Amino acid sequence: MTRNSRRWSRALPVAAGAVVLAVALTGCDGKKGGDHKSDAGSGGSGGSGGTDEKKTSFQLGEASPTQTNDGAKAKGKWTVTPTKAETGTEKELAASGLDREDEKPEVPVFVWSTLRHQGGDPMTVRDMKTDINVKTDGGKRVGELIVLMGDAKWRDDCPAVDAEKKLKKGDVEKVCTVYLVPKGQKAAAVELSQGFHSPPLEWPVKN
């Protein structure tokens, strides 16, 4: 078991001179803390209907139970519906414009999800997607790759996310998030962290 770590890397985008700064959160449990949790007694919507609050494993395309962030300044409710996850190639990573400092053999994993605001205060896309992680078939949990400066280029169907966009009740946003996993491993599941004290929700991936 390893401690949670934050990896920084710099890069020159393929088509621009700006510096790209990227962060990937990884660790033994894939949890980032915070106050996000499932709202007991509230089923997800926008997927396959209501869900049992005790359920922790779902099929891709099935909505999570309603998530809440009661400890945050903006208190909102939302659901996350991972719809697809695919493991990419080294060529895609090389073409992205990321020039990683450690140069570990890695490949990208792409996860497509639907975020649905259910009520409460308006929330940013960033806050609604921040707890989506990937677990590999090698047992490694990986957090989203975050590009802080500049842009990385991925697949045409995985455009950059407008993380600061605010959603209000009834709004729906489709997003694609990217994760770097060790070469030779594949995405085994998409996970949604429930904080330090509860197991993550899981959407198994069929490879």
UniProtKB/TrEMBL annotation:
The keyword Calcium does not apply. Residues 41-50 have a biased composition (Gly residues). Residues 29-39, 87-102 have a biased composition (Basic and acidic residues). Residues 1-24 form the signal peptide. Residues 28-102 are annotated as: Disordered. The keyword Signal applies. Keywords: Signal. This is Lipoprotein. It comes from Streptomyces iconiensis.
